[in-house]
Amino acid sequence: MKTIGEKLWGVIEAIALWCLRILFKILHRDLSPKVEESFVQFVKFGLVGVSNTLLSYVINVGVLLALAPAKVSWDYFAGNIISFVLSVLWSFYWNNKYVFTKGEDEKRNLWKALLRTYASYSVTGIVLNNILSWIWIEIFGISKFVAPIINLLISVPLNFVLNKFWAFKTEE
């Protein structure tokens, strides 16, 4: 028997495929099963990403508010790092369970995938986000609360590519 989560993902998958099929009909293009599979995977990744982003933002703001009385200049670095560690773990769990699933004949080392996930998100979640945050906040004077949102425009597409083709790569 399917769980509520599995049923929900099934509905999401059906809606995504319906939209994609309509788009391809409008464009008078043939739709391959590979394109359908990749599109559904991208939609699922996006939904996990939305939940991950919300969690990350809430944690980041929580750290900023917790450190506000101390009046430290590095509060946004602490917010980025703490939100990174917790939100990547959240993202890994859901991506492994529902997005980058493995077939019956495929194998995946869970620890290796987790380490690769942290490595790929390190590039975007710590290095890139901290550099971009510094630029937005210190150079352009953008709010510490808005900078993480701007960073998403760059980090989300990069994260999908790194996760799909490296972190969750399966072995035959």
Question: What does this protein structure show overall?
Answer:
With 172 residues, this protein is mostly helical. Helices cover 78% and strands 0% of the residues. It has one domain (33-167). It has helices at 4-26, 33-67, 75-99, 110-139, 147-167. Helix 2 (33-67) runs antiparallel to helix 3 (75-99), helix 3 packs antiparallel against helix 4 and helix 4 (110-139) packs antiparallel against helix 5. It starts with a helix and ends in a 5-residue tail after the last helix. The mean pLDDT is 88.
Would you spell out the secondary-structure blueprint of this structure?
Blueprint: H1 4-26, H2 33-67, H3 75-99, H4 110-139, H5 147-167
The biggest beta sheet is recorded as:
none
Distance between the termini: 28 Å
The portion of residues assigned to helices is: over 70%
| Chain-averaged pLDDT | 88
Number of domains: 1
- Please state the overall shape, judged from the principal axes of the Cα atoms: globular
The tally of beta strands, per DSSP, is 0
Question: Treating each run of at least 4 consecutive H or I residues as one helix, how many helices?
Answer: 5
Low-confidence stretches at least 5 residues in length (pLDDT < 50)? none
Overall structural class, as computed from helix and strand content, comes to mainly alpha
Rounded Rg: 18 Å
Q: Give the topology string: H per helix, E per strand.
A: HHHHH
Sheet-strand content, in percent, reads under 5%
